[in-house]
């Protein structure tokens, strides 16, 4: 199911972020999904639903259904 897939992806992002924080990597100005893209201004895009900071390549391309 799509719901299970979303939960799996969110958990893998959290695990990857936790591993990098333990390793001492600074993630304030880095995409939290790919952990490659560094933001020049330190901002990036912030998801309104999961509050994950990501680059333009990783996020913001999914359209959500309205509850009509």
From TrEMBL:
This is RIM zinc finger domain-containing protein. Gene3D superfamilies: Zinc/RING finger domain, C3HC4 (zinc finger). It holds the Pfam family RIM2a_ZnF. One of its GO terms (biological process) is positive regulation of synaptic transmission. SUPFAM superfamilies: FYVE/PHD zinc finger. One of its GO terms (molecular function) is transmembrane transporter binding. Keywords: Repeat. The keyword Repeat applies.
């Amino acid at each position: 199911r799509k719901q299970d897939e979303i939960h799996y992806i969110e958990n893998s992002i959290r695990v990857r972020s936790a591993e990098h924080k333990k390793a001492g990597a600074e993630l304030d100005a880095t995409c939290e999904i790919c952990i490659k893209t560094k933001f020049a201004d330190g901002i990036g895009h912030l998801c309104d639903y999961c509050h994950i900071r990501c680059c333009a390549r990783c996020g913001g391309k999914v359209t959500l259904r309205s509850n009509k």
